[in-house]
Amino acid sequence: MDIEQVKKIARDAISEHYPGMAMIEPEIEIMDTGISKSSFKKAGIPPEAGKSIWIATFRKEETTEEGFPIERITRVTMNEFGEVIKISESK
Amino acid sequence: MLNIIWNRKTVKKFKKGWVESIEEALSSIEKARVFDTTPKRLRDIVKDSKGDDSFLIIGGHKLFPFYEVRNPTNDRDRVVWTDNLYGSTDDDPLLPERSIGRLPDGDNLEFLLEKIRSIEEFLDNDTFIDTTFGLSAAVWEDTSRNIYKIISNQELLLSPPENTKTIKIGEDVDIFYFNLHGSDKSNKWYGQADGRYPIALSPDNIPGLNNAVVFTEACYGAYTIDKGISDSIALTFLKNGVQCFIGSTTVAYGPPIPPPTEADLLTTLFFEEILRGNKFGISLLNAKQEFFRKMMNEQGFLDGDDKKTLLQFVLYGNPEGRIING
């Protein structure tokens, strides 16, 4: 996967719910999802190795009806093969 | 057992004239142990505690600082403020092992004393869920309805059309659910639909309440650093009689549509826990641990937003309180 492919997948994924966001240039990063063994122990499940995932972050500033700026973030989480796992947005 | 945590030295340093009043209020509490300690030494107290011990921190960020974790996701927050570490027996703040709550001070001694004096009142008086209030940004209607119906068969309000001028909150509400936008620079929460972001809730909307519970998903819903009471919906709720307020210290996340993830999932799991009759602190603790298991099981990993969700949601109020599904 190259970054341009990842961007296209992310844009396609959000175009239905966030057509305005899909026009924005996303920030792309690769993340290792590794978590300490301690957290697995606390949750009572066996530890698992981290995975490499792609994250695409779209940012846009909106304005409330009182004229107050708020930053909106829409994020697409993809696995290492570019399959979309999750779409999230800021509250 | 409930363990009350404060730091006399820090209170004396930052709040002239507060130490004696807080000391006096704490001395009248009979059903809890009181520790004058530092964040560092609290870790040793937690290590030596039992699994059913709970911890209640006295004061906001200045009097007993939140633990700061580097933000695991890409947004405007440099750090995530959390109390998770104070409920952990090791150095890993992602998941707590003890239930933990905090009484923020809102830079107001009388407010803090009132909350301290009410600690034992909530231990002795269970509140029953009778009347609920739910308000969501209209764009999140589907996911919010699924969450709200866990605790209520009453109507979920949507903003827009609802806004700060149209909503009326009754004094008899026992439990609140909010899925709105928030900001660290504003004392209002906002709705959303069709590119509009109306003011959905302001401190002026909050009446006097009687031991109610609030769960908000709003960004910065529990951000209280350097805030006075009227600067914060969270502090106004607490001032007006809420016994348990749960919200996020930083930018929070959720999906556009069901199924629930991130803040929506944590809310879902918390409501399921309190309906089982669990106390607030244990409910949030269990919800965070179940969130972790569920994401590992269904998604195979936790991304930055998931980790941030676990860190950022804090409980204001007595972790030993509970609300009964009546």
Could you write a compact summary of the structure shown?
The complex is a heterodimer of chains A (about 90) and B (about 325). By secondary structure, chain A is of the alpha+beta class.
Q: How many extended strands of chain B?
A: 17
- Please write the CATH class name of the largest domain in chain B: Alpha Beta
Total DSSP helices of chain B: 10
Q: How many individual helices of chain A?
A: 2
| Average pLDDT for all residues of chain A | 95
Unreliable stretches of chain A, pLDDT < 50, 5 or more residues?
Answer: none
Written overview of the protein:
The complex is a heterodimer of chains A (91) and B (326). With 91 residues, chain A is of the alpha+beta class. Chain A has one domain. Chain A is built from 2 helices and 4 strands. A 4-stranded antiparallel β-sheet of chain A has the order 1-2-3-4, with helices on one face. Chain A is flat. Chain A starts with a helix and ends with a strand. By secondary structure, chain B is α/β, with parallel strands linked by helices. Chain B contains 10 helices and 17 strands. In chain B, strands 9-8-10-13-14-16 form a 6-stranded mixed β-sheet. In chain B, strands 2-1-3-6 form a 4-stranded parallel β-sheet. The mean pLDDT of chain B is 96. Classes of the chains: A alpha+beta (91), B alpha/beta (326). At the A-B interface, strand 1, helix 2, strand 2, strand 3 and strand 4 of A face strand 15, helix 9 and helix 10 of B. Strand 4 of chain A pairs antiparallel with strand 15 of chain B.
